[in-house]
Amino acid sequence: MRYGHFDDERREYVIDRPDTPLPWINYLGTEEYFGLVSNTAGGYSFYRDARLRRLTRYRYNNAPFDLGGRYLYVRDDATGDFWSPTWQPTRSPLDSYECRHGLSYTRIASARGGIRAETLYFVPLGETLEVWRVRVTNDRDTAAELSLFSSVEFCLWDAQDDATNFQRNFSTGQVEVADGVIYHKTEYRERRDHFAYFACSEPLAGFDTQRDTFLGPYRGWDQPAAVERGAAFDSEAHGWAPIGSHHVRLALAPGETREVVFVLGYAENPRTEKFDPPGSQTLNKRHVRPVIERWLRPETVAEGFAALGAYWDRLLGTLRVTTPDADTDRMVNIWNAYQCVVTFNMSRSASFYESGIGRGMGFRDSNQDLLGFVHMIPDRARQRILDIAATQMATGGAYHQYQPLTKRGNNDIGEGFNDDPLWLVLGVSAYVKETGDQTILDEPVPFDNVPGSEVSLYEHLRRSVTYTQERLGPHGLPLIGRADWNDCLNLNCFSDTPGEPFQTTENASGGGAESVFIAGQFVLAAKELAAIAELRGRDEEAAGYRAAAEKMTAVIIEHGWDGAWFRRAYDFHGHPVGSSENDEGQIFIEPQGMCVLGGVGLDDGLAVRALGSVAERLATPHGIILQQPAYSDYRIELGEISSYPPGYKENAGIFCHTNPWIMIAEAMVGHGDRAFDYYRSINPSAREAISEVHRCEPYVYAQMIAGRDAPTHGEAKNSWLTGTAAWNFVAITQWILGIRPELAGLRVDPVLPAAWSGFRATREFRSATYEITVRKAAGVSGRVAYLVVDGERIDGTVVPPAPAGAVVAVEAVIEQ
């Protein structure tokens, strides 16, 4: 069943019925001001930090699920009939409905009783505000007297405090209304440095800023008293729950359209401006009035929206492909690339499944997100690398997460996740390969953001690798710590007596548990750092890192190989995890992918055998399961992984983030058909026809899909913010299509499905443009035999960097 369709020409997903299985959302904003918006206008907005600078309130896990948003109400003043043109929150029957989610904008249009309303939501480039452009049209044969009401519910900035500290917050809410603009200044009395504003382009018939007055006693957002009676109360909030609502009266002749612009924004006092005296409640509005007035003009809105489209033209123009598969083209050219940008901006902090309160930017997460983003805006990727590295400890360990507003580690976990440091090596390597910029390696970066502790970024990378080398367990494998990539595999939790409360080792980053996954990751990172060291003329260091990779490879084969696949780990007691010796959880997906990515088993056939075990035991039509058999009971020695019911999340769910590792591994061993089959199995566009099963958005990847042990096999959860986005982009573009940045240039080495006859691509790389054509006969499954570059045949599959501005023609010929 479909709930909409793709409009590839306009780069939009069109939803033609509002009752989607779950809220199908989009993101507004590209720089500092962001928002989530659903297909029925649900969601919220924030400046930089979804916890500490939350502008508007949203109620998670509510009924209906999607509650709180950018709501509008249209009222026919002649009859008293009113409705929401976005369907929510009144859910009144509509004569027509259409939501178009585009790149950083959403447009929702509907009609009822001969009145059409279309609302465009977007955040202009370079601004800390959002625009709602509402166009109301009278399609009747007679004149219409209408009222239009806007509404937002202000969050009191710190979303955690806003949701919990009612004894204080019910007495602190403050607004000010001046010249028709509603200013939300809660906390201004205390901090006097930031506030929100909500403005309207039309003269107001009234306004409201007190929620209880606007809604009325015992009423919800589906039946506000002000809307029902057709007149605002002009209420001003003093404590309780401040909101913003404008009331505009519209008299429309037959066929007439009126445009009304609303602007919701964030502002800070200029840092150079002297603050008001302590205790003053005077709001400094002078510097925002010109901004408000400018964005209330229709011509400014039109120009800003056009600039946003041009921005995405530039970003998506970095890589364009034309393949025999429409779902591949759609994802690579539009939606997967778009999701990579959103995920880079958000990490895992703010979605309909992450409240924006519990976590900030992930150290591990953000480094992986770079992989799918760095080719589009390398300057921002460079700054992100430096921000991430500055949270690293002098030991080489890292905070697992940091808060985007402060850029400081946001918890006391510290060095608990022992895979974290190695991801920095992989993120920096991706940046240097893409840009050729070696200067980043010399940038001074502090440890734990402590002034005076600065060393070069290259030294941070060295300490990342040393961190693993100094934390090896009894088998010579890396200690897992609190967990590795799989946060729920907590092998240093144990109980000496069955039924007794669990204990943890004194040093969460130590303990006896070891990770084969981190071992494979170490091999990959050590090889990448060796290549960087060699690039810098540090040949002796490079040799040392390669030797360390070889040594760890030998340990993996001796202690990590189970006979038909790579083991997952050893628990605190030294028992293998992910082994045929286990009754459950015998094979895990992660080490089969990461060990092969590191090159383990490529020369001796172990990689092919491990991937065969994945195909036999883990692959399903909906994707590759994380482990099998599922854990049927809670096992204290394994931790949180066994707390999930079979088939969900880390307990034998299809954790989509790991699937691309297997796609890449299959490409590395030359299995094009299997790699592409895995790619299509979780490709959301390819799953659109089963939306009633998949349930999540058909235009972006989800974190997980329920595994075959689950009653809801094939159902997706946790869409948008997931490492799945970046890794799938890498898997399809760099390994299956084979267009891969390397230190020496651009490699063109595709591993294609046998049925394909080739493809075409345009790739911008280091300021040059590469026009790539790949040719092969249908049915052929070989590798590239040779390249022809600007008419000349070259050896190998790496095209050297061309001068800036050059256009390079590359032809790759695949033969049996």
UniProtKB/TrEMBL annotation:
Keyword terms of this UniProt record: Glycosyltransferase, Transferase
One record GO biological process: carbohydrate metabolic process
Domain Glycosyl hydrolase 94 catalytic: 311-738
Keyword Transferase applies: yes
One Pfam family it belongs to: Glyco_hydro_94
Boundaries of every Glycosyl hydrolase 94 supersandwich domain copy: 11-271
GO molecular function: carbohydrate binding; glycosyltransferase activity
Alphabetical list of InterPro entries matching this protein: 6-hairpin_glycosidase_sf, 6hp_glycosidase-like_sf, Gal_mutarotase_sf_dom, GH65_N, GH94_catalytic, GH94_Enzymes, GH94N_CBP, Glyco_hydrolase_94_b-supersand
Alphabetized Gene3D superfamilies for the sequence: 1.50.10.10, Glycoside hydrolase, family 65, N-terminal domain, Maltose phosphorylase, domain 3, mpn423 like domain
Protein name: Glycosyl transferase
Organism from which the protein derives: Actinoplanes nipponensis
Source organism phylogeny: Bacteria, Bacillati, Actinomycetota, Actinomycetes, Micromonosporales
